């Protein structure tokens, strides 16, 4: 059970923030409260010691090229969706809290193995240690993509509640990391330098937030316009994960066409019916787009390329060196150059070095030193 004192402190600070009017005069005070809140949340997430009982069924071995987690309230159709997508049987029933542990399944899509995790239902207050929410969201943090499953028959406020739970756990939804450099020093006070217009952060604001972390000497460099206090706190905390999210709006077989047109306007959303298997192709296409994986085909010398089993790389690690290392660590010792056919080169085949960045569906032949 989470520390009751910490939860009370969090509630007090949230109440004070709700009462405080938002304007220029109070922005520094609000920033300080936000920093306090972030520290208390971190205490909740990493409780100190204590030999509590081990809880079974949560840590699932990572397999495949990417991991997709299903997060949502109980009984929104997560298990039905997993069963129909991956052919894995996760216990399905018409009452709440049917799934109590993580159920993994694997699908092969465009040659990539993608692990799907059906996580137990979240309840409101999970970030404060209620239910099994803390473990559920801890597994969600390890995913490359999260499907937030929503029932279109229930209020759309559920979307906001789940977003708040994930944000409270340091998961940032459909955002990229803020471009802020933060460097602690031993002396010299706080130095702030920034690019462009900053409406929310000034030196006084930064100083107050850093004082909350007992840091009085640091260099802070802001490399984009209009960064907020929350961005600064995220950078100082350093334990945030930035994960793309798709909202899966399930049970569209129970609503009218007019209602479907309305919910179709929700950004990052795909309406489906897990039970009738409607619109799965759009869901999988969007999943592929958000995972941003790169498939590379191998070509042994004097043979045709192997289009059956691509080497799948993450978009941020897709150089020829990454490709070789994913095949075998010893290849780079004898690496001379590579021949590449595809969209990443000006002509095919082109001779490239180990730092060449590959594109999706390139064909690569590695030439070794003799």
Give the spatial strand order of the biggest sheet.
Answer: 2-3-1-4-10-11
Uncertain segments = 93-98
Count of DSSP-assigned helices: 10
Rg, nearest Å: 24 Å
Largest sheet entry: 6 strands, mixed
Write down how many β-strands occur, each being a DSSP E stretch of 2 or more residues: 16
**What percentage of the residues does DSSP assign to strands (E)?**
15-25%
Description:
The structure is a single chain. The protein is of the alpha/beta class and 370 residues long. Helix content is 30%, strand content 24%. It contains ten helices and 16 strands. It has a six-stranded mixed sheet, with helices on both faces. The chain has a five-stranded mixed sheet with strand order 13-12-16-14-15. Strands 6-8-7 form a three-stranded mixed sheet, with helices on one face. Strand 2 and strand 3 form a beta hairpin. Mean pLDDT is 82; it is low at 93-98. The protein starts with a helix and ends with a strand. The chain has helices at residues 4-19, 27-45, 78-86, 133-140, 157-168, 203-212, 229-237, 257-263, 280-291, 320-327, and strands at residues 66-72, 103-109, 112-118, 145-151, 171-173, 180-184, 190-194, 218-222, 241-243, 245-250, 269-271, 293-298, 306-314, 335-341, 350-352, 362-368.
Layout: helices, strands, pairs:
Blueprint: H1 4-19, H2 27-45, E1 66-72, H3 78-86, E2 103-109, E3 112-118, H4 133-140, E4 145-151, H5 157-168, E5 171-173, E6 180-184, E7 190-194, H6 203-212, E8 218-222, H7 229-237, E9 241-243, E10 245-250, H8 257-263, E11 269-271, H9 280-291, E12 293-298, E13 306-314, H10 320-327, E14 335-341, E15 350-352, E16 362-368
Parallel strand pairs: 1-3, 1-4, 4-10, 5-9, 7-8, 10-11, 12-16
Antiparallel strand pairs: 2-3, 6-8, 12-13, 14-15, 14-16
């Amino acid at each position: 059970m989470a520390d009751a004192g910490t939860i009370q402190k969090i509630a007090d600070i949230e109440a004070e923030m709700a009462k405080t009017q938002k304007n220029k005069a109070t922005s520094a005070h609000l920033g300080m409260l936000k920093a306090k809140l972030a520290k208390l949340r971190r205490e909740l997430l990493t409780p100190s010691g204590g030999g509590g009982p081990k809880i079974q069924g949560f840590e699932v071995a990572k397999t495949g090229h990417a991991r997709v987690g299903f997060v949502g309230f109980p009984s929104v159709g997560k298990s039905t969706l997993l069963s129909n997508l991956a052919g894995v049987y996760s216990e399905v029933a018409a009452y709440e809290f049917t799934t109590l542990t993580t159920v993994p399944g694997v699908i092969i899509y465009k040659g990539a193995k993608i692990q799907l995790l059906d996580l137990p239902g979240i309840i409101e207050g999970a970030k404060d240690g209620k239910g099994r929410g803390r473990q559920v969201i801890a597994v969600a943090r390890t995913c490359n993509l999260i499907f937030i499953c929503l029932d279109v028959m229930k209020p759309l406020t559920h979307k906001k509640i789940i977003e708040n739970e994930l944000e409270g756990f340091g998961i940032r939804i459909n955002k990229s990391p803020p471009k802020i450099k933060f460097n602690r020093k031993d002396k010299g006070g706080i130095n702030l330098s920034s690019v462009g217009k900053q409406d929310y952060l000034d030196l006084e604001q930064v100083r107050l937030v850093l004082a909350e972390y007992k840091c009085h000497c640091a260099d802070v460099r802001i490399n984009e316009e209009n960064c907020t206090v929350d961005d600064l706190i995220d950078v100082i905390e350093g334990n945030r994960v930035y994960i793309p999210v798709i909202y899966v709006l399930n049970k569209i077989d129970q609503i009218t066409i007019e209602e479907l047109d309305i919910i179709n306007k929700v950004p990052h959303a795909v309406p489906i019916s897990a039970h009738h298997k409607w619109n799965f192709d759009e869901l999988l296409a969007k999943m592929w787009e958000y995972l941003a994986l790169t498939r590379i085909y191998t070509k042994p010398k004097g043979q045709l390329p192997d289009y059956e089993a691509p080497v799948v790389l993450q978009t941020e690690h897709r150089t020829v060196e990454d490709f070789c290392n994913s095949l075998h660590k010893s290849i780079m010792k004898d690496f001379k150059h590579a021949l590449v056919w595809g969209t990443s080169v000006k002509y095919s085949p082109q001779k490239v070095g180990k730092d060449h960045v590959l594109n999706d569906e390139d064909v690569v032949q590695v030439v070794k030193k003799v």
